[in-house]
């Protein structure tokens, strides 16, 4: 599960960087929100939060 979330984060981070470079800020904002949550929450709580949000 941890590796799956890590790969997802890497994919989303790269996509956000591309979008930010193209002037799209929504995805970049979502990645920033995710990164802030990742710093605050343990992995199990983060996964639960992401599932509840979707």
Overview of the molecule:
The structure is a single chain. α1 (2-21) packs antiparallel against α2 (26-40). This protein has helices at residues 2-21, 26-40, 43-53. The model has no long low-confidence stretch (mean pLDDT 73). It is globular. With 54 residues, the protein is mostly helical. It is built from three helices and no strands. It has one domain (2-53).
Helix and strand topology:
Blueprint: H1 2-21, H2 26-40, H3 43-53
Helix pairs in contact: 1-2
Summarize the structure.
The protein has one domain. Helices cover 85% and strands 0% of the residues. The chain has 3 helices and no strands.
**How many domains make up the coordinates?**
1
Helix/strand order: HHH
Overall number of strands: 0
Q: Please count the helical segments.
A: 3
End-to-end separation in angstroms reads 17 Å
Chain-averaged pLDDT: 73
- Tell me the overall shape: globular
Largest sheet features: none
Low-confidence stretches: none
Helices and strands: which structural class? mainly alpha
Rg, Cα atoms, Å = 11 Å
Percent in helix: over 70%
Strand content: under 5%
List keywords for this structure.
single chain, 54 residues, mainly alpha, 3 helices, globular
């Amino acid at each position: 599960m941890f590796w799956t979330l890590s790969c997802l984060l890497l994919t989303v981070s790269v996509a956000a960087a591309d979008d930010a470079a193209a002037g799209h800020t929504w995805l970049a904002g979502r990645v920033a929100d995710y990164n802030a949550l990742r710093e605050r929450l343990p992995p199990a709580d983060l996964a639960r939060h992401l599932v509840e949000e979707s």
